[in-house]
Specification:
333 residues, mainly alpha, Farnesyl Diphosphate Synthase, 2 domains, disordered C terminus
Length: 333
């Protein structure tokens, strides 16, 4: 987090500034695509986004503590401690835990509904015990807390040009679309954690089950039935992007380049999966660096246009050159 961003956001307390910096590190380390897009937001809104995503990443890391020796009981205890700290932080507006302190400050500044955080933590707790989903309806219920509420948390920060309730279904859908994209890209990694997020009935319709996925992952061999199921899941995911798309124009103009860039880059992950022959059980599909740079440059041009429009064209906007691949070298205190 740069001093410029914190100054613009009106964050003056040294401990709170350090809390926001920690959130930025978590976001940059774990969410490269969205971290890049966030840099297209007005500087004063970036700390809030880092607080929201930094907290989400921290909770998710507790749940996904694979290979750390943390059993379910220990992760459950850590999640319970985090829930307790979150409840206290949201109630008091402060916390001794830096990430919660930044989150509580953001929730207060933007009037974010605390129920969104409660729903998110409930979904994180589900991940401790639920390992698969019978159908898409069941998966969507889980994703309300794990993904849709992230879009709803973000909406007050981004701002809208329509009454907020009109934009909320699209914001929720975008959060779901992003998570479905991650589910497709990370099928193999999630399987190693003991989870299958692809609905069981979708897999079964193609003659696939968990055992076949495990076989493919372990042997490195392909099966056309698995490919067919993954292709259908991609099609389903693209449909959710279509649900979300009308919401882009409902955002404040200065926020649109950020969300549009994330929209395009996450959609690019689907393209990469298809281009790689749906080999997600064997390797992670990635958007080429050149493509990421082109999308980032387009987003920057849109930022310039939006800010010039907001100022009535009176002088150059306050936009600095954007490095599409910022180094993340800060430690987490």
């Amino acid at each position: 987090m740069t001093d410029r961003e914190l100054d613009a956001a009106g964050v003056g307390d040294p401990a709170l500034r350090e809390a926001y910096r920690r959130c930025r590190v978590l976001n940059a380390r774990h969410g490269r695509t969205y971290f890049l897009a966030t840099r297209l937001l007005p500087v004063e809104r970036r700390p809030a986004v880092h607080a929201l995503y930094g907290f989400a990443r921290w909770a998710d890391d507790i749940v996904d503590a694979l290979g750390t020796g943390a059993d379910t009981a220990r992760r459950d205890a850590e999640l319970s401690a985090l829930e307790s700290e979150l409840d206290k932080g949201l109630r008091d507006g402060d916390s001794g835990e830096p990430v919660v302190r930044a989150l509580a400050d953001t929730a207060r500044r933007y009037g974010i509904d605390h129920a969104h955080f409660t729903d998110f933590m409930a979904a994180m707790r589900d991940d401790l015990v639920v390992t698969d989903y019978a159908d898409y309806a069941e998966l969507r219920r889980y994703m309300h807390g794990s993904a849709a509420v992230i879009g709803l948390q973000m909406l007050p920060v981004l701002g809208t040009v329509v009454p907020r309730p009109a934009a909320e279904p699209h914001a929720a859908a975008l959060g779901v679309a992003f998570q479905l994209t991650n589910f497709l890209r990370d099928v193999g990694e999630d399987l190693d954690r003991g989870r299958v997020y692809l609905p069981a009935d979708l897999l079964a319709a193609h003659g696939v089950d968990r055992a076949m996925l495990r076989w493919s992952r372990d042997t490195g061999r392909r099966d056309r039935r698995v490919t067919s199921a993954l292709r259908e899941f991609e099609t389903l995911t693209r449909g959710v992007y279509r649900e979300a798309a009308p919401g882009l124009a409902m955002l404040e103009p200065v926020s649109r380049p950020c969300i549009r860039t994330a929209f395009v880059l996450y959609g690019g992950i689907l393209d990469a999966v298809a281009r790689d022959g749906y080999a997600v059980l064997h390797r992670r599909a990635v958007v080429p660096r050149r493509r990421r740079a082109v999308v980032a440059a387009d987003g920057l041009a849109r930022v310039v246009a939006a800010r010039l429009s907001a100022r009535g064209g009176d002088g150059p906007p306050d936009v600095r050159p954007l490095d599409p691949y910022p180094a993340v070298s800060e430690g987490v205190a």
